[in-house]
Amino acid sequence: MFERPLLHADADCFFASVALRARPELQARPVAVVNHVIIASANYPARARGVRSGTLVQEALYQCPELVVLEVPHAEVEEVADALFEVFHRHARAVEPGSMEEAFLDVAAPDQSAARQAAQAIRAEVAAQLGIAVSVGVGRTKLIAKLASRAAKPDGLHVIAADQEARLRAELPIGQVWGIGPKTAARLRDLDVHRLLDLDRIPKNQLQSICGTGMARRLGQIRAGTDDAQVRPVQHRESLSAETSTSGYGRADHTPAELAETCLERVLRRAEKAGLVGTGITLTMQPSDQGSPLRRKQSDLTAGTERSGWRSTVSRLLRSEPLPPLSGLRVTLTGLMPADQVPQTLF
Q1: How far apart are CA 84 and CA 271, in angstroms?
Q2: CATH number of the CATH domain containing 149
Q3: Where is this region: Disordered (predicted)?
Q4: Considering the domain boundaries, does residue 275 fall inside one?
């Protein structure tokens, strides 16, 4: 029997889904969105042809010559991510982000039926208001809820009941356990541990020596069904970022200063919406030759909301040293604090 089940909500192919909202004619074709020269997200038709996130565009095109490649719509992605979490917060009393497109939710559901209803409401609202699909899993703990959301994809809802949970805690392959990396999984397979049930014959001290104390403890809790079931909301964000990319900074309308201004406006608008102000700023610039990112930052600034002060700081950082040709730029607002906790004299 479920006791206050949790939800794990995860937007499907997030970057690609956002980019395809304005291109419905491409929905059935293999599509990938790229950040610089790396695949950031691929839709399901592209995945069916072997295209995966994190691969080079050239490799993806070799794998799938008919692939349609689009640039990541950074501004739109950030806006949709913010709106997605607004939906989550309307339906849940606690939201724990996993990334900009996924989160664990405590919807205060007393049972499995109520959790399913909350998941259906979230999915319907996201589809109607944002035009993207979000898959939702329902489970008793975070691990089980995340496994359920994986099973729900694409664009579905899946509930893992008590009998299925018991089977998973025995039969789940080690490589599919959320949080176990390839190296740890390989070490466990060297011990002939291929499923969770196989852990029962491994002495505790041997497991600790292979995986470390923390992971060994977690694996024991997973087998016992006492793993993490608490949704921990982020009470205070430390930073907010906005980024963009271009294939030609040499154009007059795509100078580093103008793109930095665009990113700055986005991140300040998001901070205002969240009721936050920053005390520092970092510019991260990606050279077009794919060299190491360049970072310039200013911290310990007076907390405030005036655009002119932030613009001056960004301009000064950009002018501090000559810049090479760039393919991308990110602005990060750091040292965030609630605006209502900043002494008025600071403004």
Answers
A1: 16
A2: 3.30.70.270
A3: 230-253, 282-308
A4: yes
288's tokens? 């077009």
- In the set 78, 96, 102, 165, the catalytic residue is 102
pTM to 2 decimal places: 0.79
Q: Is the pLDDT of residue 249 over 80?
A: no
Q: What is the pLDDT of residues 160-171, one digit of tens each?
A: 999 999 999 999
Q: What is the CATH number of the domain that holds 43?
A: 3.40.1170.60
Which pLDDT band holds residue 305 (cuts at 50, 70, 90)? low
Here the tokens at position 303 are 């907390």
Sign of CA dihedral 174, 175, 181, 184: positive
Asked if 206 and 290 count as a contact pair (C-beta separation under 8 A), the reply is no
Cβ atoms of 309 and 259 within 8 Å: the answer is no
Dihedral over Cα of 267, 272, 273, 276: its sign: positive
Nearest Cα residue to 148 out of 48, 13, 10: 10
78 is catalytic: no
The structure tokens listed for 20 are 């395809």
Whether the per-residue pLDDT at 346 is higher than 60: the answer is: no
Task: Over range 54-76, report the average pLDDT.
Answer: 92
Whether 234 maps to a domain, the answer reads: no
User: How much of the chain is in helix, strand and coil states, percent to nearest 5?
Assistant: 45, 20, 30
Spell out a b/e string for 280-295, using b for 16 or more CB atoms within 10 Å of the CB, else e. Answer: bbbbbbbebeeeeeee
Burial class of residue 299 in the structure, from the number of CB atoms within 10 Å of its CB (0-12 exposed, 13-18 middle, 19+ buried)? exposed
Cα 101 to chain centroid, rounded: 5
Q: Clarify whether residues 34 and 85 are in a common domain.
A: no
Query: Residue 110, SS3?
Result: coil
The percent of residues above 70 in pLDDT, for the chain, comes to 93
Q: Match 């393919």 to its residue by tokens.
A: 327
